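Workshop exercise sheet. Pairs work together: one partner reads the sequence aloud, the other fills in the structure field after running the prediction. Swap roles for the next sheet.
Pair: D.N. / O.F.
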Amino acid sequence: MTACAIEAPAADGDAVWPTGFTITANGAYAARLAGTGDALFVERWTLDGPEPYAVPLPLAQPEEPGAMLAPLADGRVLIGRAVDGRRHTFSLLYPTGPDTGELSLGSVEAPAPGTLTLLPPSPDGICAYAMCVGADTTTGAVTTTLWLVAGGAFGPEKVAEIRGRCSGGVWLDRTGRMLALDRQLDGGPVKAVAIDLERGGEVTPLLQITEDSDDRLLLADPDSGLLLLRSDAPSPGHERLGWGVLGSLLPVRFPECLRLDDAAVTPFAVQPGQVLMPESCGVALRIDAAAGSWVGLWRPSSRRMHQLAAPVGWLAGTGLWTASGVLRLPYATPAAPCGLAALEEPAEPEPEPEPVAPAANAEAKVCRPVPLREAPLTDRRQADRTG
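Structure field:
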């Protein structure tokens, strides 16, 4: 076992950049490919104890750089390996004393190399899903197949076949039933849709800001209903980061503070536990520019994004919020191969209250919740000023 540190490391020293890092939905475990060169092995991190630690799970043969990993809530790690390009085998790895146990689950045949990917860990912590894009054998039309590769009774099971080319993958609930995918039909615009896995993959439109815009869902928080999305609706041909609320009359907004001219901004974690308070959710963003990567902290209720230095060796684009509002960032350096840095949002200055005159004979309005796809896109200049 490798002990983990909670404090951020010093700013000197060379960072270690392992391959990938995936955290369970409940934040209890994570998994990555550790090692260097051709000597790669699976490493499981335990994150929910008083002293986080890492457990190596090596086998007799090293892992390939393209191996796919998904940690489960019971501490086992799902690994998907490509064999002969198209065939993918799946196994569960777990520690057994000084050795590593491996339970083979079966395989999935993909239409072509690189067409099968693992979806983010399911909220139930038990199941794991893979997505495969190919062509219908009868019509030749592009279809996307969803596979249950862990948690089933008899190995990998096909659970849904969806018309069109799908990408992304965001869970919309805490049970692992509702999944959002970004779908493109017949070369048209990309639209996020909701997939009901308990109804055979029934598809429901989720995002449609304008008819011709590309509307992709990036993150969702089931507690508050906050959605983080990317769309070119406010400026065709140029995608912007925006936010909305599922099942609300609130319009989709595209804050100007999330738009940087010389850097790419991507959300990677949302603060949980803010029930019915989407504007209060902390959002962690990865900022990538020529100088490197650092962290942005933002809340929908704020007009600014705080930009903070990431710890040395940050596994860029990964982290998890605590319900109390502390962002924990995993990092790895030669001196501290397994660490978690705690990052707190700087305090906002108290705004001076502005006098508001009561409206004469104002009538109360009753708002009816509607799906986000029916919520209007407000005037872009107004949305930027108020977002």
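Discussion prompt: Residues 193 and 205 are 5 Å apart (CA to CA). What would you look at next?
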